[in-house]
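2024-03-11 09:14:02 INFO queue: dequeued item Sugar phosphate isomerase/epimerase, len=297
2024-03-11 09:14:02 INFO validating residues
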Amino acid sequence: MDRRRFIERASVLGGLAITPLSYWPILNKPRYKMGYQLFSIRDEMAKDPVNTLKALRKMGYQDFEIYGFDEGKKAYYGFKASEFKRILDDLGLTVSSGHYGFSPYLNKGDDELKYYVDRCIEGAGTLGSKYITWPWIAPEQRTIENFKLMAQKLNAIGEQVNKAGLGFAYHNHGFEFEDHNGQNGFDIIVNETDPKLVKLQMDMYWVMHSSKYTPQELIDAQPGRYVMWHIKDMDKTTRDYTELGNGSIDYTKLLPDPVKSGLEYYYIEQGGNYSVDATKSASQSAKFFKRHLQKLL
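2024-03-11 09:14:37 INFO prediction written
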């Protein structure tokens, strides 16, 4: 390198060294793909899944959490798992987690549960998902005895899923925080499951709706365990779901420390109460998130 080129290069590097970090585009690039829980747009996915995914991609969504696995046909949204994976690949999209139907297996035998979990592992593996998630239990199952039974099942599933090279998580709603004579399901799930086998997916709406904690307080008690988040807003009057930015949850102040959380994926979600329809709500939440929240992650 000649002397003149050396001086020119040194000058450029010197200028970069004093440039404020906020001007470095690479440092402002989001660390996470913008995710969406497809249950939020379930009617459209049932009618026309491919064009629905294309519409979500145009909004900026890149990653999804699925629901509605058909274990008999090993299918998602009417497509065999391998076909659905090809659709995702063609669109440049990913599915990092899925909500699977474990609730009917809570009171069934170990062999039946193991068989179902094997089906879930096969489906999730075909999609290239990182996590299999237990999303809820039916209202009639929500007793302290069943929460304790579920903790045992969660550990068993977690061991089976982890051995297959995938991760396993539990997703909270609000019922886990309900008091049962001084006990609640959430404490049982958190304390009676192995953190190495059973990770947690925090639904921040339900934490704010039904618990006495903030998301950060829960993370402080279980650092590194909340590997996924659900982000949705709460209607200011009805406390039902609503589009991001329309409700009472100020995520610009509420979002926890993703590093302490152990965050790997997040999913924007709105299960109903759409201002117009599910598609417009998905678009509105995407715009708000990109404008106000994505920079925080």
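2024-03-11 09:14:37 INFO annotate: Residues 1-26 have pLDDT under 50 and may be disordered.
2024-03-11 09:14:38 INFO item closed
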